[in-house]
Amino acid sequence: MTSPDATLPIGVFDSGVGGLTVLRALRAALPGEDFLYFGDTARVPYGSKPPALVRQFAWEISGFLLRKGVKAIVVACNTASSVALPDLAASLSVPVYGVLEPAVAAALRVEGRVGLIGTETTVQSGAYQARLARAGRAVWARPCPLFVPLVEEGLWEDGVARLVVAHYLKDAPKDLSALILGCTHYPYLKPVIAEVLPGVQLIDSAEVTARVVAEGLEARGLRNPEGAGRVVHFVTGDPGTYRVLANRLGEAAGEVHKVELGEL
Amino acid sequence: MTSPDATLPIGVFDSGVGGLTVLRALRAALPGEDFLYFGDTARVPYGSKPPALVRQFAWEISGFLLRKGVKAIVVACNTASSVALPDLAASLSVPVYGVLEPAVAAALRVEGRVGLIGTETTVQSGAYQARLARAGRAVWARPCPLFVPLVEEGLWEDGVARLVVAHYLKDAPKDLSALILGCTHYPYLKPVIAEVLPGVQLIDSAEVTARVVAEGLEARGLRNPEGAGRVVHFVTGDPGTYRVLANRLGEAAGEVHKVELGEL
Questions:
Q1: How far is A90 from chain B (nearest CA, A)?
Q2: pLDDT in single tens digits along all 264 residues of chain B
Q3: I need a surface site. Which of A157, B9, B46, B143 has the fewest CB within 10 A?
Q4: Residue B110: its H or E element
């Protein structure tokens, strides 16, 4: 049975533009659905900020999206997923999906030792490690704070990228079989990471998350296969700058609205 | 004649911890003065954000400091100095000092071609270049977005720092005689920059700014040589994280208060 809420858009949020990789996968998996994408570009990045602060930001943004009217919320940010997800999911009136569980599930389908790279806050939260440990898996984890600025500068195919990636991954154990790219920016560095760690399966949470969201909405009667496929973007920073950066990352952002922090 | 306001503290602000290099130079030049240091750690960094947004942040923080009661404001952030300074100085009721003019004045004391490195927003604002051009100087300018995260991760003496510095400075003209370190974080990279650009005079705005502030306060009768030398810190992010990061950069932050963004 289809819920009367099925025609509402899906809310997606991230600290900035990184979550656009998740939005792209969602649109591919859910053609026809409408989306509200929220990028907190005035307060980006989240990955170097403390958990309590990121949790506060996640609450504010979720409240904003709910007031706009959404049928589900996708936390398209690994840092926010790591520190805020169980609380949000338990308290909000709509289904909430993060990027952590789908990535962990994908990693568990690969035998052997799992690696995790992410922001400082994501890795220090221990959320991925705890989940993998519960499944009896040994985990190697490493924060890579320079990856996000590297990608946002468009340097992901440059020699600098190779050196920085090699620096962070030089202590990776020889027997790693899978590596979770635990930050939405990291998929841009996939070719370089694959060069540095040949034979390791790289897990990009965007696609696996999109599949989990599609199945979840279907099960709750919340799918809208016949919508217009419209995306409206909300940013706390400058809309023009957001458009430029989104374009650099391969996403055309049409309708972009500025949200004042005081409105959150 | 000494003004009755002379016993008030001096307000100093930055996007985060970078301005602590300026605070340190100010305390050395002005022993006995009290300071309020404001680090906007919930919204850091400013250097990749658009001018209008940084200007708004600078206004909000200046208003906060004035309400707390300060006799002068030092904008210890090159990005905010580049985009907000003339407006702030023209509109506030207390003297306002930035880091741009003192650095330009120091560069002009060196003959020959001047270079500028800074954040994306600082370099794109063209504020330094316009000021140097008015003095008839040729300028080479380059934004270095990875330098701040590099320093904040404590990697300034690492091999990665050498590679990243070499990447950004590889196109520097051979005849450069001075280079303005146009971001408060960059002085930590001085040894590596000096290796890559031997013989180029590196201009650190902290010390020259402290001298200009000391002379300015003296001239206005606002010096307080007999205060307690107390520093109170205000941050928009987490006080504990701020203390850790400040320590990593060599500053002990004793009294730290959390300010909610809604209070600004």
A1: 25
A2: 688 899 999 999 999 999 999 999 999 999 999 999 999 999 999 988 889 999 999 999 999 999 999 999 999 999 999 999 999 999 999 999 999 999 999 999 999 999 999 998 999 999 999 999 999 998 999 999 999 988 887 788 777 899 899 989 999 999 999 999 999 999 999 999 999 999 999 999 999 999 999 999 999 999 998 888 999 999 999 899 899 889 888 888 889 999 998 889
A3: A157
A4: none
Q: Which residue, A173, A188, A205, sits at the end of a domain?
A: A205
User: Quick one: B106 and B168 in the same domain?
Assistant: yes
Identity of the residue numbered A20: L
- Residues A83, A213 within the same domain: yes
Q: What CATH number is associated with residue B224?
A: 3.40.50.1860
Domain that holds residue B14: 4-98+207-263
| Residue A219 DSSP symbol | H
Cβ <8 Å between B152 and A167: no
Nearest CA in chain B to A166: B160
Binding residues of A: 14-15, 46-47, 78-79, 184-185
Residue of A nearest to B155 (CA): A146
Same domain membership, residue B197 and residue B225: no
CA distance B50 to chain A (A): 6
Which amino acid does the sequence have at A56? Q
Where helices occur in B111-238 by DSSP H, the ranges are 120-125, 127-134, 147-152, 159-169, 190-196, 205-219
Residues of B belonging to the active site: 77, 183
Residues of B whose CB is below 8 A from A159 = 167
Q: Are A183 and A123 in the same domain?
A: yes
The Cα A138–Cα A176 span in angstroms is: 10
Judged by CB atoms closer than 8 Å, whether chains meet at A153 and B145 is answered as yes
Number of domains in chain B: 2
Q: Report whether A175 contacts A113 (CB < 8 A).
A: yes
End-to-end CA distance of chain A: 34
Based on the fold, state whether residues A82 and A178 are members of the same structural domain.
Answer: no
> Residue B153's closest CA among A242, A192, A150?
A150
Residues of A designated as active site = 77, 183
